[in-house]
Amino acid sequence: MTITKRRLLEGGAAAIAASLLAKTSWAQQQRNNSAGEASWPTKPLHILVGFPAGASPDLAARAIAEPLSKILRQPVIVENKPGASGNTVADQVAKATDDHTVGALINGNLTIAKLLNPALTFDPEKDFAPVGLIGTAPLVLAVSGSATGKTSAEQLLWVRNLGSGGKYGTPGVGTVGHLGMELIKSRAAITAQHKPYTGNPQVIAGLLANEIQLALLPPGLALPHIKSGKIKAIGVTSPERSPLAGELPTIRDADVRGADLEIWTALAAPASMKPAAVAKLNAALVEVISSPDVSQALLKTGWQAQPGSPDTLAKRMRADTTRLGGVIIMKGIHSEG
After folding, report:
1. What is the predicted pLDDT for the residue at 10?
2. What is the pLDDT of residue 337?
3. Exposure of 59 by Cβ count < 10 A (0-12 exposed, 13-18 middle, 19+ buried)?
4. Which of 10, 110, 166, 188 has a beta carbon 3.0–4.6 Å from 192's, enabling a disulfide?
5. What DSSP designation does 42 have?
6. How many CB atoms lie within 10 A of CB 88?
């Protein structure tokens, strides 16, 4: 055999060996990756909440924490970090890189935050991996006790007839209560003017004192006053009647169309979280909130359990961004929160 042929054979053998080694290394890496993903989580999972203990998103997070811990076989720790209507926590979640930090975030954080405040350093559309909804709730379109009319349609007519002399209250500029009312105004020929308060308890007080004549309120706050007859309800803003306010009609029953709106809390992860980890967390979340015990616990804290896929949450995020984003742009609404 000539030297040239020997070198060619030796070179070919070396190339084959190198190729086999590369394939073996790649296969081993894939096995290691799969094992790592299968074993996730490898340490405690932190759920960040941008509101104080006892607030609705906090109660939702705590309702799922212990059951999630049992399924994932790791501690699930709820951390309260109030500030900027939850946007401070949303920013922290978006920038987390440990694969073990997620957020219990509300509509505003995951949809319109950047539209309201362009100075925010996170982008709801790009910086999060949707995990799944925890719960939803309608708002109650409530009117002061001085409203005339027995039916929802008659009470709505009373509001309409107030013209621009009427006032509606909200817990602040850019809140869902504010944007939702502007959406309803555009669909129901209402011209009442905005009066912002510091929170929903103050809005209730304003309705009771007839400082304002109209407001969108969480069912848990509105129902006791509706039952006592001190304020009245036109209806709930969900497409159908809600178990959170089962005796109330919907605003569709008063012929208000195109203004369906729900508040919600959802689990969201950083966009950098591995897809397999997101999928595993979603499966655990769906199992938890589908259980009767957790579903009832959520109902007692003002949430209707909504098990679903990451894609279901992503679609809701897009729909809410489009619906409320249109209001923000049309009305030129801005917030520093």
Report:
1. 54
2. 61
3. buried
4. 166
5. -
6. 17
Residue 95: helix, strand or coil by DSSP?
Answer: helix
Handedness of CA 205, 210, 216, 218 (dihedral sign): positive
**Distances in whole angstroms, Cα of residue 59 to Cα of each of 64, 78, 122, 182, 255:** 9, 10, 25, 28, 34
Between CA 62 and CA 49 the distance in angstroms is 10
Dist CA 246 CA 12 (whole Å):
77
136/264 Cα distance (integer angstroms): 4
* Unique residue bearing structure tokens 């679903």: 308
Other beta carbons less than 10 A from residue 83's beta carbon: 12
Q: Are strands 45-49 and 101-106 parallel, antiparallel or unpaired?
A: parallel
The pLDDT of residue 36 is above 80: no
All structural domains of the chain: 45-137+263-331 (3.40.190.150), 140-254 (3.40.190.10)
- Of 68-72, 81-85, 290-294, 304-308, which gets the smallest average pLDDT? 81-85
- How many whole angstroms separate alpha carbon 267 and alpha carbon 277? 13
Q: Is residue 22 pLDDT above 80, yes or no?
A: no
pLDDT band at 37 (very low <50, low <70, confident <90, very high): low
Counting beta carbons within 10 angstroms of the beta carbon of residue 330, is it exposed (0 to 12), middle (13 to 18) or buried (19 or more)? exposed
What's the CA gap between 240 and 246, in Å, rounded? 10
In Å, how far are 168, 177, 186, 246 from 257, measured between CA atoms? 19, 17, 10, 20
Per the rule left: phi > 0, alpha: psi between -120 and 50, beta: everything else, 41 is: beta
What pLDDT, on the 0 to 100 scale, is given for residue 73? 97
Helices (H) and strands (E) in the chain, counts: 12, 11
pLDDT band at 130 (very low <50, low <70, confident <90, very high): very high
Over residues 199-211, mean pLDDT: 95
* Residues listed for the chain: 337
Three-class SS of 150-173: CCHHHHHHHHHHHHHHCEEEECCC
